Backbone:
């Protein structure tokens, strides 16, 4: 990418976008944010020797990944390498035949996906999976579901504290909408939005879940340079403002090399590379499988 | 489109509480209050025949709202809704007859018992996506009808049971139809208000999320099995209350009133009214029961036309005509009366522009 | 022992018809992913039309069969064109409610024109009486019925497997869009599916008219066949056949051995309790396809 966005956003108080103040307050209250010395050192998510197969096709073969606090991990690889499958296994949607997943040193291998989402591992989807009948703001408020603290009887009888809670959730959702610069379309049904805005709404819904780890599945697929820079800006803002680790599946090598702290390379279900962008760009296996060389 | 055509021009929200209101403008609030007052006042003006029709409208509106929660909001198909209404009626009869409960104590239990039974029948079906709740509710219908028919000690089998209206309370004698109508209407208004609240709070949103994309909902923190069962349960609660109210009017209940055909009409006229809105549910219930009244009124006419065949004719006519109406509405306007009404309102508001 | 065998034979005979109706459901589900409750109503219409041509108009048997099948095919085309085609692309509730409406419409028509009385065909269609093979007393109607069911099902399955149109129908089941891109006329496949399904249902109706008498309540058999379809798997012919036979046997056994314990008529209760058990234990059925969801 032409512009190195990180330098521009370095100064915290010279932010050129809205911050996620309300959301960060919620996260600080509900979850423990990492201390300064843990960043890049403490492992928050450990995936150990995952093996999963569908019928005769083995999608992941003994894949192990460690995600440290506060880092932006990119997963790259050719199509069919199992990147989305890995994300599905982490978020509990697929059940691996072998292997374990540890989140903050707690084994979450066979937890159901709604529990994992409530614990703070939130994701977006490659083919957008929004609630098509709802508007953008309703989608984001729907994403707040595990954190809304009244039960359904209170809701049906619409007690005053339920009403206040609803307004508070709306405020948090509006905070996210402001951050993502979607104010104009907040009341539009998502089915009518163009692709780029839908991807943004999807990101907003993942944010609404108060993520402690954010898993993004091809957030920049199908976008032109402008939109990619926008999304990259959002990702970096989230990364710096909420101080949470982000796992990103991405095909655009320019973006990956620019903003990722570490890169994991998958090929046909096997991990063939793991390291900083400089190391990966020189790794011969990765170069031959995916990156390609300039000749010779 | 950024223009919101569902509100009059110039209505903006200054805080979030305003955005969540059901009736946003003073005119709508006034119309709603006027409507409610008029419906109460009607009780003292019209004769008993119209009151009986109004009570039937109210009871079936409540039942249809329950089915709207199951089908329109949570996207599950229930083919046993009439049977659960019957469970509600029978529960009230059993509680009053065998256990001596009075009407007020029996009414919530008449809602809770079909809720529990429905949730039990729903458990096998919620793990799998697709039509399976339809089949489970179909099975529930047959099991419930069999149980009612054959558990003679409790339900009197095919002879039916008697219910009682509430005792005289604060000088109001509920044996007079118009006071019973006021009771029924009050309960109906409350139940519909609760349903509307459901749609704008956490559980209602999770229903719509499960309907629209249930796998994504699971990964976004919503427990879809629990949500589906809860949707089915709440819908059956409404069916039970509807049954209890209607049964209290007739003061008699018989299992023959709850056939599979009635469950199918519930579903059919719900779709005619429009899925996904409380107004659609009420519209569907009103259309259905109006057609019922019309066919009853036309019975002497059909008898005159067909002579001895009249016994089959009325059942046959209702089957043929209702099914044709349901099919025609579905083919021509699949989103039902509610959608047409929204289009009419929109056309009026945007006149002379087309959109 | 002989009681056991007799029950099995009776169960197989009624199970054959459940298998036929189950197959008619599966045909439409395979092509259009819609569960067509209206086929239960076709049983009623089929039996009444057969009765009308056989008894009322006293036509020879072969002509009555031809007329019934022709009327069944015509009704299939009308349903497909008027009710199902406009609903392509609508959410799944719309076609289901329409098929339920069609089922009730058939019931209403049967009530209207033939006054809902229960009659039989007498000797005209299939011979009455029974054969005695050793200790087995096999009613001829049941045996002929079973044989006819199996022949029809065998013809259908071989059609699906060995002909080009059958292959096209299997492709349409997987994906309509892909089938169109491959040059398969999807609308024609829909028409064929509906015609086959209704013909099968009409044959089932004819046989049922023999065994249970011609009446409006024949569509309950169609509802029992739903349990068979779920048991066998919604997309599998073989499963539907096996499940239909099994449900017939289970029903007869339950009536024999549990009928003393439970009061009242348990003929309709048993298949539906069985349905609930299937949903609990093996929801996709014996041979159904488990869909892998992709996110």
Residues:
């Amino acid at each position: 990418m032409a512009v190195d966005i990180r330098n521009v956003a370095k100064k915290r108080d010279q932010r050129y976008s809205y911050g996620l103040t309300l959301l960060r307050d919620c996260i600080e209250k509900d979850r423990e944010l990492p201390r300064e010395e843990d960043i890049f050192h403490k492992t928050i998510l450990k995936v150990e020797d995952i093996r999963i197969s569908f019928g005769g096709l083995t999608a992941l073969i003994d894949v192990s990944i460690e995600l440290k606090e506060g880092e932006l991990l990119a997963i790259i690889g050719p199509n069919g390498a199992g990147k989305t499958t890995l994300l599905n296994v982490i978020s509990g949607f697929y059940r691996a035949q072998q292997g374990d997943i540890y989140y903050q040193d707690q084994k979450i291998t066979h937890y159901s996906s709604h529990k994992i989402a409530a614990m703070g591992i939130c994701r977006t989807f490659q083919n957008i999976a929004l609630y098509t009948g709802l508007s953008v703001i309703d989608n984001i408020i729907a994403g707040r579901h595990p954190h809304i603290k009244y039960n359904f009887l209170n809701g049906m009888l619409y007690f005053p504290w339920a009403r206040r809670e609803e307004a508070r959730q709306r405020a948090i959702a509006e905070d996210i909408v402001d951050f993502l610069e979607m104010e104009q379309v907040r009341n539009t049904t998502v089915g009518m939005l163009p692709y780029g805005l839908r991807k943004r709404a999807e990101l907003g819904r993942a944010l609404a879940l108060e993520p402690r780890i954010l898993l993004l599945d091809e957030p920049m697929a199908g976008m032109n340079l402008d939109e990619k820079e926008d999304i990259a800006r959002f990702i970096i803002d989230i990364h710096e403002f909420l101080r949470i680790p982000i796992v990103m599946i991405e095909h655009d090598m320019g973006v990956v090399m620019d903003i990722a702290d570490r890169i994991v390379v998958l090929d046909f279900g096997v991990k063939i590379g793991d390291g900083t962008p400089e190391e990966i760009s020189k790794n011969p296996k990765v170069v031959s499988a995916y990156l390609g060389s300039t000749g010779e | 489109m950024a223009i919101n055509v569902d509100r009059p021009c110039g209505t903006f929200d200054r805080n979030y509480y305003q955005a969540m209101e059901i009736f946003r403008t003073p005119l709508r609030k006034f119309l709603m209050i006027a409507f409610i007052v008029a419906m109460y006042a009607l009780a003292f003006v019209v004769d008993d025949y119209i009151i009986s029709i109004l009570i039937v409208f109210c009871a079936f509106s409540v039942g249809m709202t329950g089915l709207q929660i199951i089908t329109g909001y949570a996207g599950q198909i229930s083919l046993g809704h009439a049977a659960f209404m019957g469970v509600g009626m029978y529960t009230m009869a059993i509680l009053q007859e065998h256990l001596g409960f009075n009407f007020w104590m029996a009414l919530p239990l008449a809602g809770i018992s079909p809720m529990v039974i429905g949730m039990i029948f729903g458990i096998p079906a919620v793990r799998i996506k697709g039509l399976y709740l339809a089949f489970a509710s179909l099975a529930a219908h047959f099991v419930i009808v069999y149980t009612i028919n054959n558990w003679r000690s409790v339900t009197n089998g095919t002879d039916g049971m008697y219910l009682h209206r509430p005792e005289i309370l604060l000088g109001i004698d509920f044996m007079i139809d118009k006071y019973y109508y006021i009771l029924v209407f009050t309960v109906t208004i409350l139940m519909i208000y609760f349903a509307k609240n459901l749609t704008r709070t956490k559980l209602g949103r999770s229903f719509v999320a499960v309907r629209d994309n249930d796998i994504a909902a699971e990964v976004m923190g919503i427990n879809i099995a629990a949500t589906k069962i809860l949707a089915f349960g709440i819908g059956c609660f409404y069916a039970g209350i509807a049954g209890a109210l209607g049964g209290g009017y007739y003061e008699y209940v018989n299992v023959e009133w709850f056939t599979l055909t009635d469950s199918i009409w519930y579903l059919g006229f719900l779709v005619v009214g429009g899925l996904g809105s409380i107004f659609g549910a009420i519209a569907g219930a009103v259309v259905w029961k109006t057609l019922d009244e019309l066919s009853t009124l036309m019975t002497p006419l059909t008898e005159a036309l067909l002579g001895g065949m009249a016994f089959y004719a009325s059942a046959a006519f209702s089957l043929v005509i209702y099914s044709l109406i349901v099919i025609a509405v579905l083919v021509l306007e699949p989103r039902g009366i509610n959608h047409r009404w929204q289009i009419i309102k929109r056309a009026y508001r945007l006149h002379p522009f087309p959109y | 022992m002989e009681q056991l065998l007799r029950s099995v034979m009776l169960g197989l005979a009624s199970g054959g018809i459940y298998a036929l109706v189950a197959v008619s459901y599966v045909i439409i589900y395979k092509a259009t992913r819609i569960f067509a409750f209206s086929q239960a109503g076709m049983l009623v219409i089929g039996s009444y039309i057969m009765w009308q041509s056989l008894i009322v108009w006293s036509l020879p048997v072969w002509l009555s069969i031809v007329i019934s099948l022709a009327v069944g095919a015509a009704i299939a085309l009308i349903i497909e064109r008027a009710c199902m085609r406009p609903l392509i692309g609508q959410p799944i509730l719309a076609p289901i409610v329409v098929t339920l409406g069609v089922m009730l419409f058939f019931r209403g028509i049967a009530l209207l024109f033939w006054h809902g009385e229960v009659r039989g065909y007498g000797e005209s269609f299939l011979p009455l009486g029974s054969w005695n093979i050793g200790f087995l007393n096999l009613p001829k109607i049941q045996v002929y019925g079973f044989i006819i069911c199996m022949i029809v099902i065998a013809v259908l399955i071989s059609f699906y497997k060995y002909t080009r149109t059958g292959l096209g129908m299997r492709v349409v089941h997987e994906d309509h869009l892909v089938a169109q891109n491959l040059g398969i006329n999807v609308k024609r496949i829909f028409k064929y599916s509906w015609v086959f399904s209704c013909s099968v249902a009409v044959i089932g109706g004819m046989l049922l008219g023999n065994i249970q008498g011609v009446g409006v309540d024949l569509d309950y058999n169609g509802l029992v066949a739903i349990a068979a379809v779920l048991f066998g798997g919604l997309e599998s012919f073989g499963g539907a056949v096996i499940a239909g036979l099994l449900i017939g046997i289970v029903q007869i056994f339950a009536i024999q051995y549990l009928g003393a314990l439970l009061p009242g008529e348990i003929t309709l209760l048993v298949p539906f309790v069985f349905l609930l058990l299937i949903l609990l234990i093996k929801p996709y059925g014996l041979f159904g396809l488990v869909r892998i969801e992709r996110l």
